[in-house]
Here is the input.
Amino acid sequence: MLRTPGRREVWLRGAEKPSAYLAMQIQRIEIPTPLPVGPVNAYFLPGDPPTLIDTGPKTEETRAALEAGLGAAGFRVDEIRRIILTHGHTDHFGSAASIQEQSGAEVFGHDADRPKFNGERWLVGHLSKFFTEAGLPPAFLQSFLDTLRGYRELFDPLPRITALQDGDQVSMGNGRLRVLHCPGHSQGHVCLYHEDGALIAGDLILETISPNPVVEFTVEGKRIPTLPQYLQSLRRVLLLNCEVAYPGHGAPIANPSGRIRELIAHHDERKEQVRALLGPTAKTLHELTQEFYHELDHINTMLALSEIVGHLDLLIEEKRASVQRRGRTLLYKAK
Ligand SMILES: [Zn+2]
Ligand SMILES: [Zn+2]
Here is the structure.
């Protein structure tokens, strides 16, 4: 069995030396998911110790795809010694617990996503308050929770996690990856950066999707401004001027800085569109979301509320919108 595949001698056209990111020997394993997002990527680093970054959700198809991908690299699931999770979304970590059990691998993830790794998506009380303040009918919460329940079979809770922190160095056979805490898409989202310009990006940067910073709450129930956080994380990574990004979904991105600029521009444009919906008459978040999107199911309503409230956060920060409370509802208008 090929245990440690030889360093590939691949030279980029015009490059003076093989880029270190190729030396990293990242192997992308595309894993099918039953979720609307489509397939998710796991990445295998065959160096010492054999490391898997993200695992895919817990389904039989996922396991088959993972076994096939590892097999192509000459490895088996029980030979994985380390699992690093970019963030606590089901499509990325769902099968980590079963792989951990089978292989004894140590699993790493950021502490801020520990509640998600344990299966606590949202505290129902916080969510209920958010929906009420957004102006949604009380029945929405129940139907939303019913929809979410269907997702629970896609992961096993993961109580044994070693905490990663910003700045941690992850050693590999022939180099190191630096942990970058990039909150926004998820509070505990991390990227892994190789100093020669490769970024394992998780869902921070995707080529064809604009990653959604979903609403999140502090333990006390205060809503966290996830879109401003996400944009800050993008700007931080932009400064690294990476050569290639390995995203959580889709093929490697050759010009990550270009894509980051597009994402920032997209949010700027979207912010102006939201601003244009605001007038002197106060509107609820639900009303604004309905004006923007049509015919949404429960999950997409949640994503749309997150998107719009994120832009309202930015506009309030810029003093171009205001929010006031009327009874249990929050109302937004132009300023
Ligand atoms: Zn995600
Ligand atoms: Zn994802």
